[in-house]
Structures are given as structure tokens and as C-alpha cells.
């Protein structure tokens, strides 16, 4: 669950308190537990390791599929959604009778990916025009044009341009410029010591050389070394992921003239014109990077820049070219970086291509078959319960002053909620999908999406926009929209089980809802107000009190070490950790409020309070390959699943009481060390 992102939902039938006339019936009937008891490891005491008590049996008997880098509850639901999408897509692909409709676009795009015989016969031909354009690059002065051209094609450059809501004026769109250009997952991969990182760097250079050799580049190993040297210079100047989380530090509005003074060697006016961004000002997220980039580009040879951009073009196209290109890309990005043993079946990759290209069109068909309209109303009631609990929680904060409390209430009251699917769907009528032209189709999709973003400049903000598809198993909070969003695909067991008792559902989907609400008040979300504007609405004393609590929570996570020599980064994962802790705390309060004094029965030996925490723990079960976990520890703003359970629960008095955790137990945290934020 995420953000921004999280890049990270829910049927809600029994999540709402029973109506009065149903309570007597409910008291007589005992609902099912809604927890997978076969996943338990009864040899582990819940007081010592709650994550393994609830999930240890599943962890022991489950193997990560060969085509996966990790596997867990989210993956299981992803596979369920993928199977549903396959039926929709293959039906569309089999029907050639309806041209120029969303369904026909889905079918034609899928057919173009699945036609492996044609793709093999074409070899490198689909990308030859792009490579010829790069081969003609003869001077630094042409870089601005090439960068703009590659942006439209969706190819990585040393920096990116995006049009998004202005963080300080959420009523308008603005241009953001951000650091980019690295082919390894994080800047630390270029410098971190240790065998695995050194091996990865060596494998990366070999991968670059392989793609360049397949494209006929002279002396491909020498060219690959040039590319790696350039990326290493970019990495040296790149901000860390922790620095990039700071919403104040990454908001630097400047005129184009000021940008040209910051980085005078690059033709910014020419680039913005070629990019179609007719603006007088931009927001530069990492000024020091752009200052360094100016020097890096000016002092890098045209040959090296040509090699770099050629590799980036090939890397982006490789999954859609003949098997030698696709295999080379998987061998590095799948095997080396993620530890995955084999590539996914072609139909699965085809579904990913279609969902990534025309997700709204596919999502509309998915919703028609797999989302019950009444679920929206039930979910809205559940969100209202969580909002009420959060409101009461704000009033109970002893450390918060009346001035800040009033602002917090105003922000909460301004939240909006989106559930299931958009009210307005993307219009793809201007998107041309041609039979048998896979890479051309994807280039046209990239151009379509790019144009859609650029054309927003000067237009009113589209508050109906979604940043996830309905079939995505995730949820998110948007700071500039000040909204929480729950796609349809997450509205199913084990997040919500219509047959299960309320306690488990509140612990699962209620915790997810609480998590997303809490993102509006985490260490970065708290910096925006109810209108989505980056504005400091905190008194100095309250901000200090908040930071003190957040720092103590971060120190707890810094101590977790899932791999030898590597720990969780408490500052990188701060927002998600606050979301987990505060979200589950609010969900528990909402659960207790919903009971209205009733005492639920014991089910399968577990009290209602215990079942609440069982519901939370079971949604986080997950296995990781070492390479994937190594990657996540450096790049993921979420903590590994084990700590999303144990790291949260040991801070909650309600958990300590529910399972009678005592000093000396593994889950025990002294009361004065427990952190409560919201």
C-alpha cells in the first residue's frame, strides 16, 4: 500500500455494525473465524513471534513459484485478478468483428504480443528507426531534441519531465523535473561494498554489452563500460531515497531563466519546446543533481552519450523484441536483480502489457463482471466508521495543541474517498492499435499518455482521475488530492470475508483503510493541508512532539535485520510504518466503537480482541528471494512483511492485553518505549 504510493482495498458487508433488529439473531449465530488456521505454527507462542504464530505453517510449506521473486497474500490475489483478466482479454482477442472499440484495442494489442512467430521474424527491425536516429547524434547541441523524443517514446533519460498537481497550489498542474537515468535499482547499487553488489555491477555491464552487441554496436564491451561510467557519475550526484521523501526539499519552483542559470550548458528552452511544455516556470525536485548533470553531460563524449541512449532504447524495447533480446533482459532484471528462476508464461506477460497500456478499458470490463455495486455503499459506511475513530483519536492526543488539532480536524473533514472504480473512464478513441505491430503499438500508447499529461497544463485539475486500475490489489492516499482510494480487486478475502466475523475484517481491511487515512498525517503527508497544498499548519511545539515520536519509531525499525549485513531503513520506511501503526490503532478503535457495548462470542478459542490482530497478521504473509529482499531494503518505502506485523503490534497496548504479553516475551516492548502517534 502506498503513497504517494503507494504505487499501494474491499467488500464490506459485515464490516458495519449490525442493525438493531438483527443483533439478537447475530448473538445466536456464530460466524466463521475468517482466519486460515492451517497457516499457523502452533509451536510458536503468539507472545514471542506473532507473525510466525499466524503464518509460520504457510511459510514452511510454501515455495515461491519459479516465475516470482516473492510470494504472499497480495500475490495470490494478483493471480486471481490475472486469471479473471485472461478470460476478458482472450475473448476480446478472439473477436475481430468490432473495430475501433476499447474491446477491439484490447484484443489487437494482446494478439500483437502473442504473435511470437512474427516478433521472432522481425528481429531488431521494430526499433531500427529509433537506433538510426541516435546514430545520427553528432553533437551535444542535439541532446535536447533527443531527450524530448525519447520522453515521448517512454525511454529513460538522465532526467524526467512530468506534469502533475502543483504541491503548493493543488488547483493547477505544473511541470516537474526529476533526477533519473540509472539502470540499477538504486544509487547505492553503484557504490555499496560486498560480493553481491560487486557481482551485480559486473552482470549489469555484461547485460549492457549483450544488448549493444545484438544491435551491432562496434566494440560493445568498451561501449558498455562507457555507459556504466556515465551512470556511476549520475549516481554520485543523485539524491538518496530518504532525501527524495522530503516534500519540502524536493519542491523548488523556478523560472526557466533560473533553471538555465542553474544548468547553463543544456538547452532548456529548446528541450521544453520540443517536449511540448510551453511554460515559464518549473519545479525542480533535486537542484544539486541538475547542476551536476549540466557538467556531466558537457564533459561526456558524444560517443558515450550515443552508447548510453542506445542502450536505454534497447533496454526499454527488449521485452517486445525477438527472444534473444527478451532473454537477455530477463536474465539480468529477473534472475540477477530479483532472483527469479524463469520468466513468466507469455500469456501472463501479455496481460501485463495490455493492463499497462489500456488499463482503464480493461478495468471497465473487469468491473462489469467482478464488482457488485452494493459494495461501494457498504465500503463508504466502513470508511465513515474509521473516520469517526480517527476524529476521536485526534481529540485524545494529549501532546497536540488546540490550534494544530483544529487544523487536523479540518484536513480530515476534507478527505474524499474513491472505491472500486472511476466514475469517468479514459477515452481511448484517439489511440490507434495496429494489427501485428507490437512495439509500434506501445510507442503510440506512450505518445498517447505523454500527450495526455502535457495537455493538462493550463487546464482545471481532474479530480476524478485514478492512479491505480480497478483490478490492482492495492490502495493509496494522494496528498495533493487529499483522498484515499481502494480499487475493486482488494475487496475480497482475506482483506474482507463476507462470511467472517467483524473483528477479523476490521483487523484486515479496516487496518488497510486506517493505513491510507493515516498517510494524510504521516511524516510527509502531515505537511499538506485539507486542500492538498504543501503548507505548514503545525505549531512549532506540536511539530517537535510529532518528530520525537516518529524518530523513536524509526529507531525501532532501524534495528530490524532480515538479511545479514542489511537492516531496514527506518527513515525510508517512516511513512509506511506510521501508516501501519496509526492505521491499525484507528481500526481497533473503530472496531470497539462498532460493538456498541456488545460482547462477541469466542470463536475457535480466540476472543474478539485476539481475532482482530489475527486478521491483520494473515494479510502480510510473504516469502522473498534474497536478491529481491536485498533490492527492497534499498528501494522500498515499505518494511518487509514480518515487521509490518510484529513491529506494529508490540507498540499497541491492546495487543499486549489481548495476548497477555509479559516482560521477557519476544513481542514485549516496555510501556515507556511504545510509540503512539495518532
Your description of this structure?
This protein has 678 residues and is of the alpha/beta class. Helix content is 52%, strand content 7%. The chain has 27 helices and nine strands. The protein has a four-stranded mixed β-sheet with strand order 2-3-5-4. The chain has a three-stranded mixed β-sheet with strand order 6-8-7, covered by helices on one side. Strand 2 (159-166) and strand 3 form a beta hairpin. The longest helix is centred in the first third of the chain and has 22 residues, at 73-94. The radius of gyration is 26 Å and the shape is globular. Mean pLDDT is 93; it is low at 1-28.
The count of helical stretches stands at: 27
Please indicate the percent range of residues in DSSP E strands (runs of 2 or more): 5-15%
Decide which structural class fits the backbone. Answer: alpha/beta
| Distance between the first and last residues' Cα | 19 Å
Indicate the overall shape: globular
Q: Major sheet: size, sense and barrel closure?
A: 4 strands, mixed
What's the rounded overall pLDDT mean? 93
Low-confidence stretches: 1-28
User: What's the Cα radius of gyration?
Assistant: 26 Å
Question: In which order are the strands of the major sheet placed?
Answer: 2-3-5-4
Using DSSP, what is the number of strands? 9
Give the % helix.
40-55%
Amino acid at each position: 500500500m502506498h503513497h504517494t504510493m503507494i504505487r499501494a482495498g474491499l467488500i464490506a458487508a459485515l464490516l458495519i455494525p449490525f442493525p438493531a433488529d438483527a443483533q439478537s439473531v447475530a448473538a445466536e449465530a456464530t460466524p466463521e473465524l475468517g482466519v486460515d488456521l492451517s497457516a499457523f505454527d502452533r509451536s510458536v507462542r503468539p507472545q514471542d513471534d506473532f507473525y510466525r504464530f499466524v503464518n509460520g505453517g504457510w511459510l514452511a510449506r510454501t515455495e515461491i513459484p519459479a516465475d516470482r521473486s516473492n510470494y504472499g497474500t497480495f500475490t495470490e490475489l494478483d493471480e486471481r485478478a490475472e486469471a479473471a483478466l485472461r478470460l476478458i482479454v482472450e475473448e476480446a482477442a478472439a473477436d475481430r468483428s468490432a473495430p475501433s472499440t476499447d474491446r477491439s484495442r484490447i484484443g489487437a494489442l494482446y494478439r500483437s504480443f502473442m504473435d511470437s512467430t512474427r516478433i521472432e521474424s522481425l528481429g531488431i527491425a521494430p526499433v531500427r528507426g529509433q537506433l538510426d536516429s541516435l546514430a545520427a547524434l553528432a553533437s551535444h547541441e542535439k541532446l535536447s531534441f533527443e531527450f524530448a523524443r525519447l520522453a515521448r517514446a517512454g525511454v529513460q533519460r538522465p532526467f524526467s519531465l512530468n506534469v502533475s498537481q502543483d504541491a503548493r497550489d493543488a488547483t493547477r498542474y505544473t511541470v516537474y523535473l526529476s533526477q533519473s537515468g540509472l539502470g540499477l535499482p538504486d544509487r547505492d547499487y553503484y557504490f555499496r561494498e560486498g560480493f553481491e553488489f560487486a557481482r551485480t555491477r559486473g552482470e549489469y555491464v555484461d547485460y549492457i554489452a549483450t544488448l549493444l552487441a545484438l544491435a551491432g554496436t562496434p566494440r560493445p564491451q568498451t561501449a558498455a563500460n562507457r555507459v556504466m561510467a556515465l551512470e556511476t557519475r549520475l549516481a554520485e550526484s543523485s539524491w538518496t531515497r530518504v532525501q527524495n521523501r522530503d516534500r519540502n526539499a524536493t519542491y523548488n519552483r523556478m523560472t526557466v531563466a533560473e533553471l538555465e542559470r542553474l544548468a547553463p550548458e543544456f538547452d532548456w528552452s529548446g528541450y521544453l519546446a520540443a517536449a511540448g511544455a510551453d511554460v515559464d516556470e518549473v519545479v525542480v525536485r533535486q537542484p544539486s543533481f541538475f547542476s551536476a548533470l549540466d557538467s556531466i553531460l558537457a564533459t561526456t563524449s558524444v560517443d558515450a552519450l550515443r552508447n548510453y541512449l542506445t542502450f536505454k532504447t534497447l533496454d526499454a524495447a527488449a521485452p517486445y523484441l525477438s527472444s534473444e533480446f527478451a532473454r537477455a533482459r530477463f536474465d539480468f532484471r529477473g534472475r540477477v536483480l530479483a532472483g527469479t528462476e524463469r520468466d513468466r508464461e507469455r500469456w501472463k506477460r501479455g496481460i501485463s502489457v495490455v493492463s499497462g497500456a489500456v488499463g482503464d478499458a480493461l478495468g471497465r470490463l473487469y468491473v462489469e463482471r467482478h464488482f457488485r455495486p452494493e459494495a461501494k455503499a457498504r465500503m463508504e459506511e466502513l470508511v465513515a466508521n474509521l473516520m469517526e475513530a480517527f476524529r476521536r483519536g485526534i481529540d485524545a492526543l494529549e501532546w497536540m495543541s488546540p490550534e494544530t488539532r483544529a487544523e487536523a480536524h479540518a484536513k480530515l473533514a476534507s478527505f474524499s474517498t474513491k472505491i472500486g472504480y472511476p466514475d469517468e473512464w479514459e477515452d481511448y478513441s484517439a489511440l490507434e492499435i495496429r494489427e501485428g505491430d507490437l512495439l509500434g503499438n506501445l510507442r503510440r500508447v506512450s505518445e498517447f499518455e505523454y500527450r495526455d499529461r502535457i495537455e493538462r497544463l493550463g487546464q482545471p485539475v481532474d479530480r476524478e482521475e485514478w492512479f491505480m486500475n480497478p483490478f490492482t490489489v492495492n490502495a493509496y492516499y494522494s496528498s495533493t488530492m487529499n483522498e484515499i482510494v481502494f480499487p475493486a480487486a482488494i475487496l475480497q478475502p482475506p482483506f474482507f470475508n463476507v462470511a467472517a466475523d467483524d473483528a477479523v475484517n476490521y483487523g484486515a481491511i479496516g487496518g488497510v483503510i486506517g493505513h491510507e487515512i493515516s498517510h494524510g498525517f504521516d511524516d510527509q503527508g502531515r505537511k499538506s493541508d485539507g486542500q492538498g497544498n504543501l503548507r505548514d499548519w503545525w505549531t512549532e511545539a506540536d511539530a517537535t512532539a510529532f518528530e520525537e515520536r516518529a524518530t523513536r519509531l524509526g529507531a525501532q525499525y532501524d534495528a530490524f535485520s532480515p538479511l545479514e549485513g542489511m537492516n531496514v531503513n527506518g527513515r525510508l520506511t517512516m511513512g509506511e510504518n506510521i501508516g501501519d501503526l496509526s492505521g491499525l490503532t484507528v481500526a481497533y478503535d473503530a472496531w470497539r466503537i462498532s460493538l456498541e457495548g456488545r460482547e462477541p462470542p469466542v470463536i475457535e478459542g480466540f476472543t474478539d480482541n485476539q481475532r482482530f490482530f489475527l486478521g491483520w497478521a494473515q494479510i502480510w504473509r510473504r516469502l522473498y528471494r534474497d536478491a529481491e529482499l536485498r533490492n527492497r531494503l534499498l528501494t522500498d518505502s515499505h518494511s518487509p512483511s514480518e515487521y509490518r506485523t510484529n513491529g506494529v503490534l508490540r507498540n499497541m497496548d491492546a495487543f499486549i492485553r489481548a495476548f497477555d504479553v509479559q516482560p521477557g516475551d519476544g513481542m514485549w516492548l516496555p510501556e515507556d518505549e511504545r510509540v503512539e502517534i495518532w
